[in-house]
Amino acid sequence: MDTGQLIQRDETCWEIPKKGMMRVPAVIYADHSLIRDMDQKVYEQITNVATLPGIVDAAYAMPDAHWGYGFPIGGVAAFDPDEGGVISAGGVGFDISCGVRTLHTGLTIKDILERKHRLADELSRTIPAGVGSRGKISLNHHEMIAMLNGGAQWAVDQGFGEAEDLERTEEQGCMKGADPAEVSAKARERQHDEMGTLGSGNHYLEVQRVTEIYDQTIAARFGLAIDNIVITIHCGSRGLGHQIGTEFLKDMAVSASQYKIALPDRELACAPINSPLGKRYLGAMRAGINCALANRQILTHLTRQAVASLFPGARLDLLYDVSHNTCKVERHQVNGQMKDLFIHRKGATRAYGSGHPELPAAFKDVGQPVLIGGSMGTCSYVLCGAKDNEQRAYSSSCHGAGRAMSRHQATKQWRGRELVDQLASQGILIRSPSLRGIAEEAPLAYKDVSAVVDAADKAGLSRKVARLEPVICIKG
Amino acid sequence: MNNAATPRWEHFDHDADIGIRGIAPTMSEAFEQAALALSAVITDPDTIKLTRSLQLTCSAADPDILFFDWINELIFRMTTRDIVFGRFEVAINKELLTATAFGESVDREKHQPAVEIKGATFTELRVYQNADAMWVAQCIVDV
User: How far is CA A157 from the centre of its chain?
Assistant: First the structure.
């Protein structure tokens, strides 16, 4: 990105001043090297977001921001319904409520070393992953409606996991206000055989080792210590969410002129929050969030079964579950007044700091865990919502590394088999049905996640707590 | 038919995802070619036997939207019918598209499907005639 167009506010904060059609400024959090390498499209897209009706304060981009659909991936924006604020399908993304959850295992690296291959095989056998994989659970119409209303709470009621899991899931595992009637028959059909499946692309299940602790006090509170083994699941709302995203993107694009919204980019399609279309999308999108939460909950149950078959005593307690493609209503201060704002986070994680009333008791005095996924060869991070970060992007943080090169370039540069062998020599076991899929997801096709989390830490969005390195990776 | 007028498809780059493009003398053929580009995101279209077929229809006044609907309809059929497509016959009559898509059931060993496609997007979505009077139909698909 051309930094000449930006005003540098501090080491990690860059502003695009209000100009042209912009209603508010745009703010990008990144260090000098990240912003220099950031796609110029992020500048264009975050500037476009700043033109949308009812936007409050500023349009924000996280340190991992890259070219997205209308919104940049790594974009955060708040809208006030009383000021004509809008809701955007592109601002949530196609994979509604895609997110990350991390499970403790109570095991250390020593405990699993000898049985690592067997564990990889067992997880690969138990977790349906990749194109054309089918879950073992198919829902009839009534069950589907109950799942779309109940989310992870529904899944726990069906015997997938434990009530304690819900305390460690955003929204206690159930997004209120879902309206399954707004989820089309096609979207439900796409989900028919996809409950409890991982998907493909950048989605994964990883067995990880804690290799570094940055904050002993918070790590202890999160239950993390050096050489602990944890398991992290990254996936979303599967076919149902994708279909909702696709259908409403089109409906919003076609209706924009009806609502007299001038779109600088068709992909930024949106509708007023208080319009019939806006309300329909909200109901469908919230059902999509519940689908993602239920899906991760079922995968948690399957993971527990796989681990128990090799380590019968192991307890897989949930550390936390975060979503990074959402629009949620949150109370924030605007000009000294408390208001309900619709916060879009597209490829960005909510990062409540200590004292936030919505935090579970266990995290109230430290802040919430923020789970950042890396790529299969590098590392992931656990961060913690930074204190007083509300005025910085409405308590949001980054979500992952972001791609550094296209899938096409990656397949030209690497072969799947060689990558699997190379990672195996580093002690990382990969299991995937597709070698080409592995090449497309090559570790070096991603940006350096460490630079991204360092910038998020420096910018006061979230604080580094622990670093996790992959031991086993199940890819779709 | 000279080489320049031969229907063809290609991919174009996007940071996180991938662009599909069909280029052909008619709009219908450009839609067929773009659909082959879609299949090639998942697997090598040459490995797909043509043992099953499905009928599809879509309608939209705006050719861009017609293309968006066509690609999304294929994505929907692929995921719900567990099929990959290797050949297409498309007829466009004003606002109405009717098509037959030929392919076979997904064989994970043989096709090594690389990635699922979530949906067609409005990014780089364009249906137009280029300077050589060839029809181009393209968009980025989210994977």
Answer: 25
> How many CA atoms lie less than 13 Å away from A88 in the CB half-sphere?
36
- pTM for this predicted structure: 0.96
Mutation site for A-interface testing, chosen from B116, B117, B123, B125 by largest number of A Cβ within 10 Å: B116
Question: What's the pLDDT tens digit per position in A304-348?
Answer: 999 999 999 999 999 999 999 999 999 998 888 899 999 999 999
Q: Which residues of B touch A (CB under 8 A)?
A: 11, 13-18, 42, 65, 68-69, 72, 76, 79-80, 82, 106, 108, 112-116, 118-123, 125, 140, 142-143
State whether the Cα torsion A321-A324-A330-A332 is positive or negative: positive
What are A421's strand-pairing partners? Answer: none
Query: Whose structure tokens read 């699997």?
Result: A420
CA-wise closest residue to A400 among A63, A170, A1: A63
| CA atoms in the 13 A half-sphere facing the CB of A456 | 38
Q: Rounded CA gap, A226 and A356, in Å?
A: 28
Question: What does the alpha-carbon distance between residue B143 and residue A242 come to, in Å, rounded to a whole number?
Answer: 10
- 10 Å CB burial of residue B124 (0-12, 13-18, 19+) is middle
pLDDT in the model for residue A270: 96
pLDDT at B15 over 80: no
Non-local (6+) Cβ contacts of B93 within 8 A are: none
Which one of the listed residues A242, A344, A399, A408 is annotated catalytic? A399
List the structure tokens of A95. 């994979």
**pLDDT, mean of residues A105-112:** 98
* CATH code for the structural domain at A3-404+446-475: 3.90.1860.10
Distance CA A419, CA A441 (A): 10
Look up residue A160 and give its two tokens: 């997938």
Share of chain B above pLDDT 70, in %: 98
State the pLDDT confidence band at B3, using cuts at 50, 70 and 90: low
Record the tokens describing residue A218, joined without a space: 């918070």
CATH number, domain B11-136: 3.55.10.10
